[in-house]
Amino acid sequence: MRCRLCPANAAHAGSTGISKYRAAPEVAGQLPPLAVRLAPRKPLAPRPGAKGITASAVSFNFYVGVGSVMAHTSSFHSFSARGSSYTSTAIALHWLIALLIVGGFALGWVMTDIPGFTPTKLKYFSWHKWIGVTVFALVVLRILWRATHAVPPMPAHMHAWQRGVAHLTHFLLYVLMVAIPVSGYLYSSAANVPVVYLGLVPLPRLIAPDPHLKEVLKSVHSALNYTLLALVALHVVAALKHQWLDRDGLLSRMLPFLK
Q1: Are residues 91 and 146 in the same domain?
Q2: Which run of H or of E encompasses 196?
Q3: Are 236 and 169 within one domain?
Q4: Which of 24, 55, 210, 249 could crosslink 1 through cysteines, CB 3.0-4.6 Å?
């Protein structure tokens, strides 16, 4: 069978009537443009008196098969191209907040295990508070940025319940990233311990000292932190699943070097 793509065979193509064929409508709609151009222009039928499967019919089936594979491959990778639309600002805020949260959690874990009120413990408490205030400010900025910029779509292959869980997880993460610094700030006020940001800027006390409320806010602050830890773990596991199992390019939206 001669190659229909070679210029030398153009005369042969005309003599065999190949140029008169086109892909069937129900097939052409599923093929990428290149496959439609390569496919015969209409369904081929055996010539009168021909026996068995003709070379043209085999060729047509080959093109349809290749075109189908190309269409599926194109749709599989299309999300990676569309999903890389997070702005540099959104990416920077995401990772800066994440690093500060990890550092603040680790610092809080260490400082609460230090007995008494040593200078080191008081220093760690101050750093912990500064991190909390910074996270609060950056999260507010991130919420404003997200409200004014389009969010990349979820992968098309995700089920509705998966999309729902993803949206709920993101919503709860934002709520906790606001609630935790606020609860810590109120806890510090109730304990009658002022917050001096970076050791330079005294911040106002929002509530009066209250020993009972202090213990309540301490418990609330701790519970919210462990809830955030669980959600962050779920968030990380889901991201790794998309990267290693689904291979849909979702993680590359926040890590562009993975593309």
Answers
A1: yes
A2: strand 196-197
A3: yes
A4: 55
Strand 201-202 versus strand 196-197 pairing type: antiparallel
Q: Structure tokens of 73? A: 């491959």
Question: Where does a domain end: 62, 79, 96?
Answer: 79
Q: Which domain holds residue 64?
A: 7-79
- Is the pLDDT at 57 greater than 50? The verdict is no
Q: What is the 3-state secondary structure of 53-69? A: CCHHHHHHHHHHHHHHH
Domain boundary, last residue among 33, 51, 79: 79
Q: Residue 41 and residue 25: Cα distance in Å, rounded?
A: 10
Query: What is the pTM assigned to this prediction?
Result: 0.65
The answer on 50 and 126 residing in a single domain is: no
Q: Which helix (H) or strand (E) element contains residue 100?
A: helix 88-111
Q: Are 121 and 198 found together in one domain?
A: yes
pLDDT of the residue at 29: 45
**Number of separate domains in the chain:** 2
Query: In 10 A of CB 144, how many CB atoms?
Result: 10
pLDDT tens digits along 197-219: 999 999 999 999 999 999 999 99
